[in-house]
Amino acid sequence: MPSEPLLEVRDLTISLLPDRTLLHDVCFSIPPATIVGLAGDSGCGKTTLALAILKLLPPTPYRVAGQILWRGRDLAAAGEQELQGVRGAQIAMIFQDPLQALNPVLRVGDQVREVLYAHGAPGDPAKLLALAGLGDATRVLRAYPHELSGGQRQRVTIAQALACGPALIIADEPFTALDAPRVVELAALFGRLRDELGTSFLLISHHAGVLGNMANRVLRIGGGRVE
Fold it and tell me: What are the percentages of helix, strand and coil residues in the chain, rounded to 5?
């Protein structure tokens, strides 16, 4: 019997005020333990859609209509207090630039602990780094972001996303700036997390070929529509 979807987007339309429609009548769903790819050229609205799912688009200049059902609850109609219990804890997001996502003046360990404390979640930062595929946890936890490579910083943001055991992780352009071997490693990591933890992923990328090789399903954005 098919699983009920974790996330179901129904007839979502995103407009830029006063009169420009960016995305029209978007419909898709993400079941548990599933990787869904979202492919499209730069500027087509992939990141805008991801931010809309978490209700992170500012009401001005954006207007969002439609339903974003998370385990049956409509996030589009939810208040900020309810959303705080979803963001990070149930749906986590990995942003495109890990250097900007991390605080330059705090050690990595403190930043991973911050996520745990913010949601009252138990967890061991060293184990989270290992889960994200980072070795030498003692050194990494004591390091500042600028002391790590770009790939290591990305793994730190993945560890942060995993901190609360979310059911869904949205990753914005995770393969950008990675060479081919690193792309393969990261794709394998996402697949392992899906298989071992039952985590679902919405992976946003303009690398449709990479998504096609690893995702259970690939959606494509073009002309303001998702297919």
Answer: 40, 25, 35
Question: Tens digits of per-residue pLDDT, 76-102?
Answer: 999 999 999 999 999 999 999 999 999
Rounded to an integer, what distance in angstroms lies between the CA atom of residue 64 and that of residue 17? 10
Instruction: Examine the pLDDT at 1 and tell me if it is beyond 50.
Output: no
CA distance linking residue 212 with residue 76, whole number of Å? 30
Q: Which amino acid is at 35?
A: I
Q: Smallest Cα–Cα separation from 10: which of 67, 89, 81?
A: 67
Question: Residues with Cβ < 8 Å from 25, sequence gap 6 or more?
Answer: 11, 12, 13, 66, 225
Contact partners, residue 151, CB within 8 Å, separation at least 6: 178, 182
Which pLDDT does position 203 carry in this prediction?
98
pTM of this prediction? Answer: 0.94
Confidence category of residue 177, pLDDT binned at 50, 70, 90 = confident
Query: Which H helix or E strand runs over 22?
Result: strand 20-30
Closest CA to 212 of 40, 44, 37: 37
Strands 73-74 and 91-94, bridge-based pairing: unpaired
Burial of residue 165 (CB within 10 Å: 0-12, 13-18, 19+) is: middle
Task: Count Cα atoms within 13 angstroms, Cβ side, for 106.
Answer: 13
Q: Which residues pair with 205 in a beta bridge?
A: 39
What are 203's strand-pairing partners? 37, 171
Residue 114 in contact with residue 103, Cβ under 8 Å?
no
Would you kindly state where each structural domain of the chain is located, as residue ranges? 98-165
